Automatic annotation (TrEMBL):
<keyword id="KW-0029">Amino-acid transport</keyword>
<keyword id="KW-1133">Transmembrane helix</keyword>
<feature type="transmembrane region" description="Helical">
    <location>
        <begin position="31"/>
        <end position="48"/>
    </location>
</feature>
<dbReference type="GO" id="GO:0016020">
    <property type="term" value="C:membrane"/>
</dbReference>
<feature type="transmembrane region" description="Helical">
    <location>
        <begin position="98"/>
        <end position="117"/>
    </location>
</feature>
<dbReference type="InterPro" id="IPR004841">
    <property type="entry name" value="AA-permease/SLC12A_dom"/>
</dbReference>
<keyword id="KW-0813">Transport</keyword>
<feature type="transmembrane region" description="Helical">
    <location>
        <begin position="60"/>
        <end position="86"/>
    </location>
</feature>
<keyword id="KW-0472">Membrane</keyword>
<dbReference type="InterPro" id="IPR050524">
    <property type="entry name" value="APC_YAT"/>
</dbReference>
<dbReference type="GO" id="GO:0015171">
    <property type="term" value="F:amino acid transmembrane transporter activity"/>
</dbReference>
<feature type="domain" description="Amino acid permease/ SLC12A">
    <location>
        <begin position="1"/>
        <end position="125"/>
    </location>
</feature>
<protein>
    <recommendedName>
        <fullName>Amino acid permease/ SLC12A domain-containing protein</fullName>
    </recommendedName>
</protein>
<keyword id="KW-0812">Transmembrane</keyword>
<dbReference type="Pfam" id="PF00324">
    <property type="entry name" value="AA_permease"/>
</dbReference>
Amino acid sequence: MILGFIAYINCANVGSQVFDWLRALSGLSSFFTWGSICACHIMFRLAWKAQGHTLDELAFVAPFGVWGSIYGLVLNILCLIAQFYIAIFPEHDKPSALAFFQAYLAAPIVLLFYIVWKIWKRTPFMKPSTIDLETGRRVLDTKELIAEEKAERKAQPWWKKLFLELC
């Protein structure tokens, strides 16, 4: 509720400028968020395979597998590149530092936070073979879960079965 009072900033003479900078801070956040999710899924699947596990051991498998995450990561990177190009060469305007930072401010901030975190916590870059996949893992009877899922699929309508087969 307290954050709702930020809307009253617009009553001030500089309100539109404040909102421009707030938008600049959050504008690329979804690209970084989804790109990170895709990268984590790719790394998880590489680690899962490198440590001798099979997909049958997982309770849930992404419909498009690791290729869906690769596709998503590439699209997020392409969007960040396109936004960078627009930030350097704004449409219908001359290039300026103000225009660049209002279009791309989130990127340097995310990079700064990442570098500071790596230095402060001294976390190593992980290899798929060294990632801990066991801590916090729930032990599931995957054979039982797979049997339940197959029974549920048999009870589904034909159109849903067709969709699941295509995915």
